[in-house]
Design brief:
Helices cover about 10% and strands about 50% of the residues. With about 200 residues, the chain is mainly beta. The protein has two domains: about 100 residues, Sandwich (Immunoglobulin-like); about 80 residues, Immunoglobulin-like (Sandwich). Strands 1, 2, 3, 4, 5, 6, 7, 8, 9, 12 and 15 form an eleven-stranded mixed sheet that branches. The chain has a four-stranded antiparallel sheet with strand order 11-10-13-14, with no helix packed on it. It is elongated and about 70 Å long.
Length: about 200
């Protein structure tokens, strides 16, 4: 009787292991989408990336060729997963690419359906510094909230563009410095900006 119980427990354990098998035939079906809007991105490409769990490097490397999507950004393919590999899926398109930290994980040895692969579409911020009354006799204007912040000294009536990632909440901040009539207090404006679109900000000094 004890032997029967032991065999049953072993069988249950093996069945449990098979449910979490990460090798063998793996299917992947999904769609490439805009990370900001969730809308489909047509005519993109997707590529599987693998990382060997037992290795010393945490980097992911391509595990196959780039595969084209259809006019709705949809894709479907299969591959043979290796047990000691972790897999993610990235996309590349005219609107942007998938960042590694947002790439969806692919479960080896299983059917992966409804996979959404986000691409970070790029956009622009258009900043117009307006030298119009009432003037504040500012020494400089500092503008930030994106990767390439800048300070104009002395301020000029000019238009400056900065490349940003599309976002539902893009923040632009500025501060007028050296003025005798206005305190050096940060100002800010927040707005959504879609991929390949432009957010416009006017700064009067």
């Amino acid at each position: 009787m004890k032997l029967v119980h032991l065999m049953t427990a072993t069988a249950i354990g093996c069945t449990s292991c098979s449910l979490f098998e990460e090798s063998g035939k793996t299917t992947v079906e999904g769609q490439v989408v805009d990370s900001a809007t969730g809308q489909a991105v047509a005519n993109a490409q997707v590529c599987l990336f693998a990382n060997h769990r037992g290795g010393s490097s945490a980097s992911y490397n391509p595990a196959g060729d780039w595969r084209p999507t259809d006019g709705e950004g949809k894709f479907s393919f299969s591959f043979e997963a290796e047990e000691n590999n972790a897999y993610i899926l990235r996309a590349s398109s005219s609107r942007g690419d998938t960042e590694f930290q947002s790439a969806p994980r692919i479960n080896g040895g299983r059917k992966n359906k409804g996979v959404q692969v986000p691409v970070a579409a790029m956009a622009w911020v258009r900043i117009h510094l307006l030298d119009v009354p009432p003037r504040t006799d500012a020494v400089n204007v500092a503008v930030w909230g994106f990767q390439d912040s800048f300070t104009l000294q002395p301020p000029l009536d000019t238009v400056i563009y900065r490349l940003v990632k599309a976002s539902p909440n893009q923040l632009v901040l500025w501060q007028i410095n050296g003025s005798r009539t206005e305190p050096a207090t940060p100002h800010q404006v927040s707005s959504g900006v879609a991929g390949l679109d432009t957010m416009r900000v006017d700064i009067r000094y």
